[in-house]
């Protein structure tokens, strides 16, 4: 599956790296693509192993705002 996560307060490369690190540590992630300009991360994953809602919760726990 493919999902796009929009993060309105992702401002820097450091923010992008922190968020990407949270995503790729989950089982089932195949690939990620980050756009700082669009403030979004595209995640391609196997939905048998990866839970997008849990990942969004982890990102929000770090203080980022997912829309």
Automatic annotation (TrEMBL):
Molecular-function annotations in GO: metal ion binding
Top-level taxon in the UniProt lineage: Bacteria
InterPro entries the record matches: HMA_dom_sf (IPR036163)
Descriptive protein name: Copper chaperone
Origin species: Clostridium chromiireducens
